Design the sequence.
């Protein structure tokens, strides 16, 4: 029997009364695995009202107790790690190794949330004037909400709600309608960890439900990860409604390869970072920029890339899984064809890929283009598939100019044996996250995820110190106490006779 995905409202997992439902499918077979409701306006309103009510009590809970909740939660997540990874694999198609990484990176953020007390400390200056002290305190905002994508159904929800809740807020989560099951299980474990009723809510749906959250007068913040046009819409609509918004958008991430780089390391890292997770990650390397125009790099790259095959989640020989949907597959195939039509050299073509036993899966094999120019669609658009394009330039300066001219700024990397080259690149490049001999420089959660330019709309980024600032407000207090007000009180000293 196909399950119906529940809502989580006011501490209760319940079935929606909605008349609008969506099929959740297994991307490897396109078989229906669940039915998902598009929550009614009344259900979303109830979720926000419940979170608003819960906030009145939750904000008064001691910060140390909020931290202990996160400690209990991270322990449960660790105990259920493989179970969660299996769920991620089944609803996204990710191979098991990728799914385990998805879960683990989320657990790392929860561990950071358990350190919330030190991150919420204020500041004080004594005697800013005579008998006058000034100090600041950090306080939660209220109801926060998150709209999360399909490609990391464990990690990205865990980027947002644990930090927000540890700061003293309550939270309404709207997970991707394509991969909602992991979020429901995360909520079940959070309830088991002891989160009070109403502190976390989950509603499901599409644009209509998102608009309810963006326009509701009681929601204070919106955290979003997704495509470029939707990120822009979320930011513009949310800020128009006076919300605090962080909207993470698409990317076109470049790896610059210097002639002195270790060839084996470069090729292995290029293959893994471009086709891993079927290229469905905003930090994937999708552009290789070879400095020096040595064609032998591309020939060697093709040999290694051709050995990587897609497959189902529990196939130990598979390098990656399917794309999330037939629509996503059609879009990638369309861009591959455009690359061919516009004159790029298709060195390796994965457009006719299939996997035995799964003829209806959303399969695209590793695809490699050379001879690409910046005017081509395969360069200008985020493909979000297992496609790597190669460009060639004459100098480091030309490579830096190429990357800086791109409208996105999520991540980049450079592979070189020269410290001076690496220093110049990291200093001059206009990208938020830079890897030096590291292909995908996603920072650990005591830093923040810092995309730039068209890859991010907002002022404060996800997790780390910036997330704490995003989910809190600073109150500054100036106080004066007078010595004359000190009462001597009764004399309680034992009198000697």
Sequence:
């Amino acid at each position: 029997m196909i399950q119906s995905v529940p809502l989580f409202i006011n501490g209760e997992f319940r079935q929606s009364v909605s008349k609008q439902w969506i099929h959740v499918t297994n991307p490897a077979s396109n078989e229906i695995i669940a039915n998902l409701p598009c929550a009614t306006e009344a259900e979303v309103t109830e979720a926000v009202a419940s979170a608003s009510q819960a906030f009145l009590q939750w904000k008064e809970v001691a910060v140390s107790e909020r931290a202990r909740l996160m400690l209990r939660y991270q322990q449960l997540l660790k105990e259920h790690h493989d179970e969660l990874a299996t769920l991620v694999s089944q609803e996204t198609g990710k191979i098991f190794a990728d799914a385990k990484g998805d879960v683990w990176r989320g657990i790392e953020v929860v561990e950071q949330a358990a350190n919330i007390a030190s991150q919420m400390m204020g500041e004080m200056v004594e005697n800013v004037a005579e008998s006058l002290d000034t100090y600041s305190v950090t306080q939660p905002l209220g109801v926060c909400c998150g709209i999360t994508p399909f490609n990391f159904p464990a990690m990205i929800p865990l980027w947002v709600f644990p930090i927000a809740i540890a700061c003293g807020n309550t939270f309404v989560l709207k997970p991707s309608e394509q991969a909602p099951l992991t979020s429901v299980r995360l909520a079940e474990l959070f309830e088991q960890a002891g989160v009070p009723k109403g502190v976390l809510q989950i509603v499901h749906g599409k644009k209509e439900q998102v608009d309810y959250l963006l326009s509701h007068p009681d929601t204070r913040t919106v955290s979003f990860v997704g495509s470029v046009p939707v990120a822009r819409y979320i930011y513009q609509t949310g800020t128009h409604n006076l919300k605090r918004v962080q909207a993470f958008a698409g990317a076109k991430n470049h790896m610059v390869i210097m002639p002195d780089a270790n060839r084996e390391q470069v090729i292995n890292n290029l293959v893994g970072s471009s086709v891993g997770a079927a290229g469905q990650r905003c930090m994937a390397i999708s552009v290789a920029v070879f400095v020096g125009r040595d064609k032998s790099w591309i020939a060697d790259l093709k040999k290694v890339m051709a050995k990587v095959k897609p497959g189902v989640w529990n196939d130990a020989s598979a390098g990656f899984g399917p794309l999330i949907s037939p629509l996503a597959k059609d879009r990638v195939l369309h861009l591959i064809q455009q690359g061919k039509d516009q004159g790029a050299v298709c060195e390796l073509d994965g457009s006719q890929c299939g996997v035995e036993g799964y003829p209806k899966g959303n399969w695209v094999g590793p695809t490699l283009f050379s001879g690409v120019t910046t005017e081509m669609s395969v360069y200008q658009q985020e493909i979000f598939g297992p496609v790597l394009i190669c460009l060639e330039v004459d100098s480091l300066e030309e490579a830096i100019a190429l990357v800086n001219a791109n409208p996105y700024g999520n991540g980049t990397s450079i592979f070189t044996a020269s410290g001076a080259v690496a220093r110049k690149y990291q200093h001059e490049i206009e990208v938020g996250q830079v890897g030096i001999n590291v292909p995908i420089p996603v920072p650990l959660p005591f830093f923040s995820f810092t995309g730039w330019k068209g890859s991010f709309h907002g002022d404060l980024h996800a997790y780390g110190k910036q997330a704490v600032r995003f989910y809190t407000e600073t109150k500054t207090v100036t106080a004066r106490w007078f010595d004359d007000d000190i009462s001597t009180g009764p004399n309680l000293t034992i009198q000697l006779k």
